[in-house]
């Protein structure tokens, strides 16, 4: 941190729009989205906890994913809501690094949890007779701990790299939170080596779970195509529909934002894509998993009956 300019005690977050008339409408929209995200994901966690038939590896990972999604949006949205109604829209240098750390740690944990859920579907469809042995509770816990450890080490490494940069020109971040690309744009240090390291390390950390998901679904497709009946094929694929939808939403926007050189960074387009995986996807996850899943519907009904009884 000693490398930074003495005048970088604060950054200014421009947010989604600099139009004063848009601040209150945007506050209302994102406040409602945040409430829906928190309530929806809490309901998923409570429904899984209250129904013993949902105490399986798939729903264990889903409950953890819901908890991580709540934390993930909480790292970003409350500060964004405050800035919508604030004149200054500032964030301290230390606060910026802390936000960046938890954003990356929780975002990467999300991707590893999605990979764990893909492995669960792979074992359930391709090796159902050994499912209870392969996906035993101890192994699920090990997968969870591994996901969190890798994600937090990745975030720590990235933040340590950022802390070595100097910021001696503009301190205006053209984004609604402290993301790596817009902050790198402000640095007056030579960021070429940092970009190479970041891209290489990001590829290793983010692409690994993505390739795991890809491999799992290729195996699932090959196995399902061997099922003779159309009803059997549909039943097997239907168990993966919700997970595939979430994977497409999450990775589609992440790949668009992060797997490009800094020179191709576009403020407006990247803001929209970032909103997709930081706010929209966590909000939609409870609907995707409950509306297309009979077990979750039953679990939610059971939980609501307990509440009203």
Automatic annotation (TrEMBL):
It is found in: Membrane. InterPro entries: GPCR_Rhodpsn, GPCR_Rhodpsn_7TM, Olfact_rcpt. Coiled coil: none annotated. Its main location: membrane. Residues 40-289 form the G-protein coupled receptors family 1 profile domain. The keyword Ribosomal protein does not apply. Pfam families: 7tm_4. It is a multi-pass membrane protein. This is Olfactory receptor 1L4. The chain crosses the membrane at residues 26-47, 59-78, 98-119, 140-157, 203-225, 237-259, 271-291. Keywords: G-protein coupled receptor, Membrane, Receptor, Transducer, Transmembrane, Transmembrane helix.
